[in-house]
Amino acid sequence: MDFWRYSRQVALESIGFSGQEKLKSANVSVVGLGGLGSQVAMSLAAMGVGKFILVDFDVVSEPDLHRQLIFTEEHIGMSKVEAAALELKKRNSSVKVEPLCVFVDEKSAEKAVKDADLVVDCLDTLSSKYALNRACIEHKKALVFGSALEEYGMVSVFKPWVSACIECVYPNLSDEGLPTCATAGVLPQLVQLVGSIMAAQAVKQILGQNTLLDTLLFIDLKDASFEKVSLLRNPNCPAHLGLPLSYKNEVTEMCTRNGRRLLMLKLENPPKIEEALTKLSQNSVNAKLVGTQVLSFVDEQGSRFSYTSAGVLLAEISEVYSTIDEAKLVVERVSRMLN
After folding, report:
1. Where in the chain is the domain with CATH 3.40.50.720?
2. Is the pTM of this model over 0.85?
3. CB of 234 within 8 A of CB of 51?
4. Which CATH number fits domain 252-338: 1.10.600.10, 3.30.450.40, 3.30.310.10, 3.20.20.80?
5. How does pLDDT run across 147-203, given as a tens digit for each residue?
6. What sequence ranges are listed for the domain THIF-type NAD/FAD binding fold (predicted)?
7. Of 44, 190, 8, whose CA–CA distance to 120 is shortest?
8. What residues are labeled active site?
């Protein structure tokens, strides 16, 4: 190992040479490559973490660039996991990266955790966070949790098979009606701060130090305040009781993108990229491959679509469709071409 490269952190009593070896040997799953995940991945790669599993279903868009600093304009339209993998290798050629273009739900969450030493939850929907939490309980994986919205953030660390978990703290919530980055906004500096704290907690977990275990750190950048709250395991926690998750596979309105409605659908029987390209061509749709994991195409009314190897169809709906019901019909029509 090139210890000279990491000499400024090896000099720390909390890391040292033995700690640096632990970082090199670690396999960290970063789940969600938005503002938090981008910061976590870049920070840990710079510190010499040896292997990453990068998990996301989305593509890079222009509104991401103000806070997702791993991406540049040349990545717009690419799969986030593919673009991030390329950038991490540029920053540290010694790291190994496994990109997983996957939509995290109760069926797929296992892929994100089973081979990892540590899981970092940078997801932005509760339904996916719940599914990831359940997988960490089943596979006994430590989980670094974080969230950021407006000017407020949270960070915690869970060992959910023996202690508290995210569903102990926030049980039975739905994504419907909750604010998002697109509706409520988010301060870029908050994202970098929360992501950096999450990365620091990931390092401490790798080194066997449990500073935020079962403790929720609240961050308020409106008045630059920090507060810690101790967490207890909830005897009525749905995850620990083994209660099923509710999951609806339907067209979902996400945020807006480029001033348009953004809708998403996870296909039931998703074709591989090559097969999807053939099916679209048979329906007279001229799709182009962006990177290796995304098909991009536009319909006759100007709606823009991205189909990813995660089996997810993303649609920026044309302004000619004024209602959500009309927009959903557009997505369902295209999905029938692919199913």
Report:
1. 7-230
2. yes
3. no
4. 3.30.310.10
5. 998 899 999 999 999 999 999 999 988 766 665 655 567 899 999 999 999 999 999
6. 6-239
7. 44
8. 181
